[in-house]
Protein 1
Amino acid sequence: MSSLIDSATAIMTSSARQLELAGTNVANVSTPGFKQVHSTRRLATMPTESFSSALEQTRARLDQGKLISTGRPFDLAVMGSGYLAVRSGDSISYIRNGQFVRSKDGLLVSTQGGVLQRANGGDLVVASQTPEILEDGVVMEDGHATGRAGVFEPASIDQASSVDGAHFDLGSSPQASDTAGLRQGFLEASNVDTGEQMVTMMAALRQTEAGAKLIQTYDELLGKAFATLGQAGR
């Protein structure tokens, strides 16, 4: 009987997670650089593992989103598999959302307050309100190169993982990208497929109903067992 409850619990837990991630995806369909996230399940492989102990893993679909022209000088779309580095306090994180505004100190600040980093480390400072930012990240002001925005990638492609669809973990040794570039005046759209998310939500709801049905069946069987025992004891 316990295996039936384990199965029902696993189904309902997995369905709840799928609904949560699908909701996150739909909520971020208009967020630049957002990558669609989904859960995968590693099935139990050891005889002692129960179905409910299988590991849920969250992964992101990392394919390139469409580029949208904005004409704003501090909007930067990443082309290819690279990531922008931003500093929040003492922490560095990696993003694809290249929507920045220039602070009064010349820092380029993301929508979540992160400061854009240079290719060789440190905050990128831009004096001009209308710089030219080249594909390789070099910042041109009055005809002179004054800095270079960093575009980074993991040491190996399998080390790139999504934290939440908007922030990414590049492993222990991220490096400057030789293949990715920047497009000034553009933003990368999210790659969320809303139709696919609706299908995922419907499937998750059906799975939830199946899990609830299993629990109902368990309760009915348990009730019959108690009734039988009660009659036998008379």
Protein 2
Amino acid sequence: MKVEHLLVLANPTSSHLEPIRRLTPGIRLTVGLSEEALGDAVEQAQVLLLDAPKKELLRTLLPRAKNLRWVHSLFAGVENLLFEEFIQSPLPLTNAKGVYSGSLGDFVLAAMLFFAKDLRRLVRQQAEARWETFQSVELRGRTLGILGYGDIGRAAAKRAKGFDMRILACRRRPEQSAEDPLVDEVFPLHRRQEMIAASDYLLLAMPHAPGTQRLMGEAELKALKPHAVLINVG
């Protein structure tokens, strides 16, 4: 596919778009967040890049985009972009699945350390120019339960394993992780309360899909240990 014109639904001042601006000079680039800002570029573009979940704007633009051949989202999830006309169109839609796994894995580790080492207290004492000793805990030997063991869940497990944590995983298809060297035990979804009850840290890393709705409710929250930490990146 020959690309002559790239249309980007994004804030024109976004710094992370700089690599796109450095594309081959022969490609025309139009960036904006409104129909007015995009102008006649809508009719000319072959590729549409989405950096904002503007479903209604996309719904307005799609009938005008006669030359469009490909839509790509910079988000991992695309449920907020879908509507019937788009679903029924022949346009391929791709996403950024896996791109954010490393960063979110780092965040999960940071969140666990935040509570294990009571970093909030350290920052408060620093602001008050005082020092009082207090007890913190190690991550070593603690259990991380992961509800939704996909790219993000595995990235978090890899980092946690480096701290000698025990890893429990719960997913729709547990057989896919049966041989995973990072996981100590895999649970099917109907046994999630058993996994939750054994976890010191519980990570929610489920994609937004029909099969993942209402997996955390009152019963699951009551199954948590009193000291457990709940981390949601799903």
Protein 3
Amino acid sequence: MKKSFDIESLVRILGVVAGPGAYDVSPDGQQAAVVWEKSGHAEIWLVSIQGDDAPRRITSGLESKAGPRFSPDGKTLAFAQDCGGDENCDVFLYDLTTGAIRNLTPATPDETINPEVSWSPDGRQIAFVSNRAGQMATYILDIATGAARRVTEHSYTDYTAEWSPDGHWLAVNSHTVGQDTGVFIVPVGGGEVRALGDANGMIDAFIPRWSPDSRRILFASNAHGFYDVGIYDLEGGAIAWVAESEWDKMMTDWSPDGRRIVHTHNRDGNVALVVKDLTTGATETHEVEPGVHLLPRFSPDGKHLLFLYAGARHPEDLWALDLATGKFRQLTQSLPPEFSPDDFTAPEMVSWRSDEWTVHGVLYRPERAATAGLPPGIVFVHGGPTWQWHNDWSIVIQHLVSHGFVVLSVNYRGSTGYGKAYQIANRFDLGGGDMRDVIRGAEYLAREGIADPKRLGITGASYGGYLTVTALTKYPKVFAAGSAAVPFLNWFTEHANEREDLQYWDMENFGDPVKDADRYREYSPIFFMDNVIAPLQLLAGENDPRCPPDEARQAADALAKLGRPHELVIYPGEGHGFAKVENRIDAYRRRAEFFIGHLKDGTLIHAEER
């Protein structure tokens, strides 16, 4: 029987931050710079790839770090630093010899810089993406002078820019139409910009990676229904598709000699690594255990493959695979010695029908009975909405399951991982069909005798918070309680108060707030708060630039006027999520106590009671 966890202990299982730009490999292949929360904050650590030395933290402070990138000579590390969760990052240079730090981009209050930067091969310039002119565009910054010039002028929203090894080009990844992204090949010295595409024009393309000789670009594309892997020839413009099959293939990298590639393969929430020989076509699949393997990188000598791995029973860590022997080495150790992987609950993958779709979910069953009869259940709704629940690490889910709750994480229509048709099925219907998929998931728990239908709760963050409140307003009799973290509830005010790149996404996927005002109102739960009968908990960050705290305040004010039970907590110094350990402990404990109080009798275990 699994033990019940106190949230203090779980929150202090601090793993590698598994976001874009989570780590980089030094040019000599001896060490990696990785974003790790081991100290209680997202800091940069240096980790020996051979395991010769203990990990060493090189940054400090209360603000989150991201996107470490070694300079070409290996003497300097660039990284980004957030400020209070507002996503207005600055880019810093860290001298690996002296420890001196220099701020390259002192941000204005309204400037957002993407934390993923790219060095020029000569180490004199850095390419980055910023909204300093309003639109998210690509800039090149001269390190000596600090002067920056804009190099993209198209109407699209840029995400990242990667310098070619020969220094002549940038591969810029941009949000184009709908949920598609495109790759634009930008000459650094000026000239014609071209879009990566085929005879029919620009195609959806994602995460470009230059070949070592700068003649080809490796990328992922869902142009054929699922994310496949292609190689674009810069000279001839031809595309060779090198990984085509059902399920998504995405994150890629080249071997140093250009003869092999690696990509991830996502099959129903489990993500493995696939290495392919481009000459023979032979493939090898690698995984530590079933779970999520992300951000694969070849070492500079081509002998090792680095990657992040996490599973339901393993927090995020940096690993290395010896390609000759097939042996894995864990480079960071995030699970404290007092815990064992066997302490945690592994999920099962389930599915149900909703309208014309098969909807997939990740189901966790408690081993410890919460009360007599069927256990209470919680439906967990992911944000995005273009995202996916995996067989992944989640302290929130493990905490709830250890206290006797069934947890069902729903991959509603609009989620990634199940093909393009499914991913775009909620366009201009955000909060409609995807909400029905969630409701059908709750019905699945009841129909299959998995959870007590009278004791179901719903929770989620960001877009998941939006669907949580939508469920309580549009389907008020399904759930007995709801907890929404960093939510939005009013499409009009959300659109008006968010960044331009987020507004662009809204326009492409939901419509214009003036022309489509009826849709904006019909899908905004704030206008239907009088339907809420279940208690609602609202958790928000004071500095959130994506879902500002006034969204949660609107709901709390409406419920207060109606005399309906609710709770509102806004965390100072936090953004779109809770970075500070003490705030995570408070928020996660509040959520668990909220559901324990409303869905079952009992008290929450605290550290001193273990």
Protein 4
Amino acid sequence: EPFQHGKGSSHLHGTLRSGSDAESSVTAPNGRLHDYDNLFAMDGSVMNFAGNSNPTHTIMANARRMALAAK
């Protein structure tokens, strides 16, 4: 019998914790990976929290903010 589960969806994010401390986070607040000078993560992976609704607009706004800061 196939696995039964309820209908729904999820938005996975938060796999690259963002923060100013390289010991407890993977990326700086601007999305740059701590151990690399020219590698940035500008997607949902840097979001440390899960909201209660679709995060698409938040991800887009953060990506734009980080891209402008990376210039």
